Amino acid sequence: MFRLISNHPANRGRRVRAFAGMALWQGYKHLVGKAFNLKVYGDMRFRAYPDSTQVGRFIYFGGLPDYEAMTFMKRYLRPGDGFIDGGANEGIFTLLAAQLVSPQGEVHAFEAHPVYVARLRENVEGNGLRCVSVHDAAVGEDPGTLPFVLRGTGSRIQTAQDVGETHSAQVVRLDEVLPDRSWAMGKLDIEGAEHCALRGAEKLMCRAEPAVWFLELVDPFLARFGSSVAEVRQWMGDRGYDLMQYEPELNRFIPALRDHGTDVFAVSRARAAEIEARLRDAALA
Known about the structure:
Layout: H1 2-7, H2 15-31, E1 36-40, E2 44-48, H3 53-60, H4 67-76, E3 82-86, H5 92-101, E4 106-110, H6 114-126, E5 132-135, E6 138-139, E7 144-151, E8 154-157, E9 166-172, H7 174-177, E10 185-188, H8 194-199, H9 202-206, E11 212-217, H10 219-223, H11 229-238, E12 241-247, E13 252-255, E14 262-268, H12 272-284
Parallel strand pairs: 3-4, 3-10, 4-5, 6-9, 10-11
Antiparallel strand pairs: 1-2, 7-8, 7-9, 11-14, 12-13, 12-14
């Protein structure tokens, strides 16, 4: 954790403050242990529960836990845009997206873990975000009900190697539940079921919707559901998307290396000029 905090790009010039924040948060949650409102993204409030892993990410990483993705969002998203948040957890992406696209825009947040659904709703309602629709469901390829295994920081569809407490959760296809509109960006962080969710959004993607996906692609996680980073890359490529990495310092995309996993962007070739124009405009602003 010390290395992550020290090397995080949002902590340049503020490492001492970041480490002090870590110490204060660790002390507070063990000694006081009461929920409070944490100020995030300037003027928004995030309900900070002592058992939440998301609070520490805000405090440790300069208020931008996923620096590349969130820096891109701040430069790319515009009022009126549509944003899809698959695996929303307590809402760290949902809140930022809502701030950037509202009031004319639309954010659809999907979460299957009952505790995090409640916290997600609390954060959305506490900030008066009328542009956000919270879906008490997971996203996947086949609609229905599946057992989800509960985990410390979230939940996932139960697979053969999973043991522990489970609950039944609704699974929906993005193609079937999203309104008919343009979508600027989608994010999927669903513990290896990303390819399943993408197959459930194939009609959208054939229309180059959304223009950009932000994906967590990890081979061991994807393997639980019979896929891999290489298979996702090929499948996305066949549907007009390239896997890319975003360089915040240069404000540009570069091709993701063949063996690059974890966090990647999938960028629509058909809408690449639109995306680049927005980034140029942001650089000039």
